[in-house]
Amino acid sequence: MNKRTILSILAFSLIFTLGCKKTFPELTPPDEEKLIKDYVAINHPNAIRDESGMYYQVITPGDGAANDITSSVNLNYTAKILNGNQFDAGSNKSFVVQNVFRAWQIALPKIKPGGKIIIFVPSLLAYGKFTPKPEIPEYATLIFELELIGYLK
Fold this sequence. Notes:
Elements: H1 3-20, H2 32-43, E1 48-49, E2 55-60, E3 72-81, E4 86-96, H3 102-107, E5 116-121, E6 142-151
Antiparallel strand pairs: 1-2, 2-5, 3-4, 3-6, 5-6
């Protein structure tokens, strides 16, 4: 092979290798766990830490059959950043549990129709680096109040 071909192959290999190298942020920013823990200790001392790292407090358990990942549910919800700024809310909204983000999938089976839960969500279980709205910063810790109205037939 000539020198030019070898150099071209080496350059391509180097570019390909560097292009494939990905850097991933830490799963949970270093201070996020402490931030959530401190917030919960002051504002919701009865909240429980789930194995996922999310904290939750069942306000009202509800009655009836439990939902699962394939359930279609009607919910009332509010969504806030940990600083208290509300960025979304919905009344009588329909969702399929398996189509919502991970934190809701973990929280919803903990309540039944008529139940209400508040969850404190680390960024990993929410939007992470993604910012779906300007008012949600990267790696935002979120708070959701979810009220399960019932199931869709």
